[in-house]
Fold this sequence. Notes:
With 149 residues, the chain is α+β, with helices and mostly antiparallel strands. The protein has helices spanning 3-26, 54-62, and strands at residues 36-44, 49-52, 69-83, 86-98, 113-123, 129-141. The chain contains 2 helices and 6 strands; from the N terminus they run H-E-E-H-E-E-E-E. The chain has a 6-stranded mixed beta sheet, covered by helices on one side.
Amino acid sequence: xxxxxxxLAERACERLVLxxxxxxxxxxxxxxxxxxxxxxxxAWPEGERLVxxxxxxxxxxxxxxxxxxxRRLMSNVLATVxxxxxxxxTSYFTTYRIDxxxxxxxPAGPPVQVGHYEDTFHQSxxxxxxxxxxxxxxxxxxxxxxxxA
Length: 149
């Protein structure tokens, strides 16, 4: 693979990693389904969750509580092209999240999750890179706190 093509593919995959959390935190959470292949999957093995297929992903991520606010910090994104139309990535995340948000600033608390994602990507026939699978691994986790009114 040409070095420039490799660089562009890596950047496209890195962009998907960031677009995913941006849509969850600031966009329409159900729209993350559009970042996956039609048969894409999201898994959390320790939490015994597996969501397969774009429509199931749309329903799963769209079911977040309406009063939830979250912010995810992404770091150490390492995308690796494995063939002209496949790639992998590992990235670290830290999630701050509360339920019961009424639109005002709340005091900062500790993160509710710290972990990493392992992703696989496929390039579609039109050249677009999409997530084929995303697996979540938590090193640290706890319950989502609720704001007390």
